Amino acid sequence: MESDESPKPATFWTQTNALMRKNISLQRRNMRANLGLIIIPLLLCLMIFSMQKVANIIMPEPEMHCDCVECIDDDSKESCERRCSSALEVILGKSINCPEEHPPKLPALFQLPMPPFRATRNSSSSTSSSYNSGLPDDSCRKNRSCAATILITGQNRSQAQSIGKHLFGSKPLKNPSDLVDPLSLASEFILGTSEFLPSTLYFDPAYMMGVEPLYIVHPQCNSHITFPISIKMAGLSLSQDVMCVDGLALWRENSSVINSELYMGYKKGNPNNRIDEILAAYDFSNTNINKFNVTVWHNATYMSMGPLLRIFRSSNAASNAYLQFLKGANVKMLLEFVKEMPKGATKPSIIDVSTMLGPLFFTWVIELLFPVMLTYLVHEKQKNMRIFMKMHGLGDLPYWIITYAYFLLLSASYMLCFTLFGFLIGITSFTLNSYCLQLVFYFVSVNLQIALAIVFSALFSDVKTATVVGYTYVFISGLLGSFLFEHFLQDASYPRTLIEAMELFPGFSLYRGLYELAQYPYHAESIGGTRMSWLESISDNQGMQTVLIIMVVEWVAFMLIAYYLDHVVSSGRGVRKHPLWFLPQLHGKQDCKRQRQGYDVLINMDRPDVAREGEIVCKLIQEPYRIQAVLCDNLKKVYPGSDGNPDKHAVRGLSLAISQRECFGILGPNGAGKTTFINMMVGLTKPTSGTILVQGLDICKDMDKVHTQMGICPQHDLTWDTLTGREHLLFYGRLKNLKGDLLVQAVEESLQAVNLLENGVADKLAGQYSGGMKRRLSVAISIIGNPKVVYMDEPSTGLDPGSRKKLWNVIQHTKKSSAVILTTHSMEEAEALCDRVGIFVDGYLQCIGSPAELKARYGGYYELTVTTPSNQEEDVEKIVQNLSPAATKVYNLSGTQKFHMPRQGLRLADIFREVAAAKRRLNIQAWGLSDATLEDVFIKVANEAQSISDHKLYKKCD
Predict the structure, then answer these.
(1) What pLDDT was estimated at residue 70?
(2) Burial classification of residue 208, based on how many CB atoms lie within 10 Å of its CB (0-12 exposed, 13-18 middle, 19 or more buried)
(3) Where is this gene product found (predicted)?
């Protein structure tokens, strides 16, 4: 089989290669589950596509009425009016569907503050004389008659104020009703509105009927003046009311005062309070008759109300005021008809199913991988698969890197299929969004989901519970996002900071991103189906930029939390660490407690063989150059009691030395402490106190190195059902740093040794193995790579006699180069394999020695069995008493009696002679004579241990 020399510990790259190969093999065998994962999003995309087709059939695209012309011929007046009415409904409706060949000539407007928000003297928080001088009293708010204020400053006050007088126009406000055209009205006065601009300047809502009226701003205004003006639109003459608002031009000392007044007045330090708004502010700086230099303030906060601002007229007013200051009232430079580039026809509003249902369904699709990853991790934790791999040399870093890479590859393949199919069938969320944006968003979201699954896996120890919680999280996060979170997104009055706080919940941040991806195509189609660019997609107004930042930060945070929980929570890596293990002052305090200083070790004196073993340990532990395979010094394990129950002492002061090339058998009744002892040796449980050295390495300090030196066959088989026996051995062989031909040879020899090469069993899936075949595979895994110490917990359980015999041969061969620690309930197996045997009872090592020594020490009697009719039982007892007065009867049933006769003073010839003589007088149907067995020794020691008082005699090791 393997060579006597163990290979060196596997490197990081060897470990990652082994684990990746294993995961790929598992994934290749799970094709049905893979197809299920892929089919679900494909079916969902098809469902959305089908629903969109049905919606298009049920609600077809509205007819376009774009043929409205001006009526001249009276004969066609009725039909012309019908066409014009239809076009007007479209133009003044929710969307503008028709392109206008000759757009109306409408002037740009001032953005006036709404009446309740215009600046007044008493509403400002500042009391300094530099602020609020000249503003109207706060009482004007009651009748909505507050003036619209313009602030002015400059180096030459008189000149700046002279220019400022012309900002409101140079003509007196006598009869503005004569100016029935908005162009002529805007050329003479400040014409403004409180309406906000939409996303296009093609048709300003201020000119539509039934909305906020237009306003003239003038210093000599009569607030009761209201008159209509005529607007030409789509061949029709529309009418709109115009009202008058008082205008104030107020001087301020410098631009700093204006800055402070604008800020303190408009916001008052609170972005939710829109009060004390100023119409505009101008700093004419060093303007003179030879040079025009002006700075214009405008209210940029209106960007939150729409993507455009009315700033053209405010800048034009300053240039006209300067020209009139120089050249007279009739000189002006009009800046009219300033708009965006000409727009095309807007598509009519239709139902977009992907916009309505996409965020909810796509949230479910993406999060569907979360419970898959969570159950995978919890399954490895519950079945102790991770610690089992760790015991065979797999480090924590390779495990998490490959596991993360495996999840990322799985998620990337899943999302690629999902997005590709959605693109091919034409779902707008995929076709009209930036491909770069989609790539970044889906990459960040799946990474955040993987990190979240790792964190959650540390909190669960049962697969069923984890599965229920995982799928509940998926459905609840989607439903809450659709019916709660989306409502807040659409409510413009809801604070954006609270929405960002809600997005800290990963389900909501994912939903917000998908919601934005669904909204982009909706807006894009309204301007002709143009794909949204990366810069447009991550603009602050849309919210995608914030979502990406939150998700990246949470991704990093969850990875750090996962790293911390992996050390302090029992997540399958073995012994957990102190919650503050990373602090320098706690470094070195994580070792097992010691109860020995020098030679101060307590040794049980009731059993001289146990006491002698303790003395040997005392000497060996002081001689570090004499390395034993296993050395235990005063080892204890105490489980704290709960609910008023006392502490459970599983192992009590065990001292044991096991040499290389020795097979040590551990016997004992159930609950004696055998499994606890093995768990401490392999790193599953931390000792309460004491020392364990394996190949000279302390398990409390160097457990990772100890794992590279050992192999283990656990009591319960730890195998993957979808891997073959050969693949199992290849995986664990690579962890033992076997490569190339040496790996293949070691696998073949291990399979041959445990009888798994016959009939192609080695290449069958482990899930198809019988219990005995899995047991043999576990034994083969434990010995591959020639480990220095092998732990076998009841390895022959469930094996037939032939397989058991072959297994014994394997163990006999293994102990030629390794130390083997074997637990078993088979006395025959212990006698055949073990060089020494230790019997555990109630946490104590009751006796230790070779099977022959124990039988001689605890046996010391012959066992005589005689079967006669029931009426001759007394005669048999008399014969036995004559042979050995100290004999005791241990068994009696229906004429069959069993006696223990001490060997001292008794000869076998005497026994045979008396039985032969008795057969002539009695009806002896059967009889037998045997020596004491190891089973008898075990029963005797166990019974005696149960009856001995808890008070023990001890001495100190010297």
Answers:
(1) 46
(2) middle
(3) Membrane
